[in-house]
Structures are given as C-alpha cells and as structure tokens.
Amino acid sequence: MLEVGQELPELGRVVTAADVKAYADAGGDRNPLHQDDAFARSVGFPGIIAHGMFTMGHMAAAVTAFVGDPASVLRISAQFRAPVYVGERIVAGGRVVAVDATTATLETWVRLERDGETLWAIKKGQAVLRLP
Amino acid sequence: MDPAAQGTVYPDVVFTIDPARVAAFRAVFDQTDGVPPTFVTAAEFAVFPRVIGDPALALDFTRVVHGSQEYAYERPLREGETVTVRARIESIKIKGATGFLTVVMELRDADGELVCTARSQMIERGPDA
Asked: What's the CA angle centered on B43, arms B21 and A122, to 5 degrees?
C-alpha cells in the first residue's frame, strides 16, 4: 500500500562512455554530442554529455524497481536541467505525492554532485502509477 | 527555426517493438522484464530525421538540446507489435536567439487505437550560447 510521503529507494550509477554508446544504439539518438568528444567541445561543452533520455531512462528504472512492473507506469515526464558528463555519478530518487483509488503520483528527480555542489539533471520529474 | 512550421503533420511511420531492441534497451538500465516506459524514444527517433531534416522547419540540430519529455500511456506497449507513429509540431516559440520546439507523436496500434502520446521539447541554442 503506497502512502503520501513514501520515498523511492535511491538508485545511483556512474555513467560510462560505454553506457552512452549502448544507449545511443538502443535508443536511436546518434547525435554526435553524445558520441564525439571533439564535436561536443566544438559546440561549447567540456566533453561528451549523456543523452537526457539516458538520464530519464535511469529515472524510469528507479520508478520501475519501486513499482515492480514497467506496465504499471501510466505517465512519466522529466525536465532536463544540468547536462551529465561521462564519468559522473547520477542518483535517481522520488517520493509519493498523491494516492487515489486507482493511481499513485510520484515526484521524481535525478541529481549529481559536481565541484561540491548538488545539481539537478532532472528536476520536477513525475510518474503516475496504476495501483494493483 | 521557422515558427511558420508550427502545426506541420508528418507522414506516418511504421515502427515495430522489436524484442531484441527492447532487450538491448533494458540491458542499458539493468532491467529484466517488460518494455521500459521510455522505450518509446526509439519510435520517436524513427521519425525525428524527417522533422529535423524538414527544410521548412530549418532546425540546426547541432545546436539542439533536449528540454523536456513526457510519455502518457493508454495501455502498455507489447513486444513484437507494430505501431504507427504520427508526428506533429505542436508549437514553436522563439525567445531572443533561442528557439523552443514542441513535437507530439502519437503511437497507434493495428486497430487504430491510441497506445501512447509522446511530447518532446527541444531547445535550439543561439549560435553564441
């Protein structure tokens, strides 16, 4: 039984170049920003950045682990904020903010630490789950 | 990016929820079962080349970053099924040198029933951003 205020277990991972490459192949986004270090630098980033959808996929994995079945996810959304660079560790989390007879709504996020500061790769994420 | 492209509807694209590709996607996120909720991105990227390459839209994809994303399901996707994806430019807003593009894609099953609606906001950064 889900209750308002309940927290998702946090899910962390270090993002590797191999992860980003595997994601590009599976997801189909082959933008060189996510594959080519020289290109990423040429457009003003300090190196390859992970796809926003990689970070959202990680957030979805945390939600799926919490609910147990990906088919229970009725709606999921994310706003992308800080870019995530290869080598950084991202942590997904969330909490239950509303429950009714058939659904639960979670507020979700993905954060990272950079230069001693907490940044939000995803802020104001949301997931709506179908309750069994 | 040309605001006049707002409202453009692109030709339908057929996309199969290939179990091998779903498995590869799951593996990236250490998942074992089902279709991950964000797998729809693979269907979107079967269509995006037409949107990105549309000369009437005049988007510079090398300056594009992903602003936000939403998926709303009517029912879960099933591995092996084939869906039709229709993309529409919902809105284009220009603020200074920055352009905001919202693309909506509807995935429909063989019976024409809506399965999932995907809404993506792309941000085209100015050349000096």
From this structure: 95
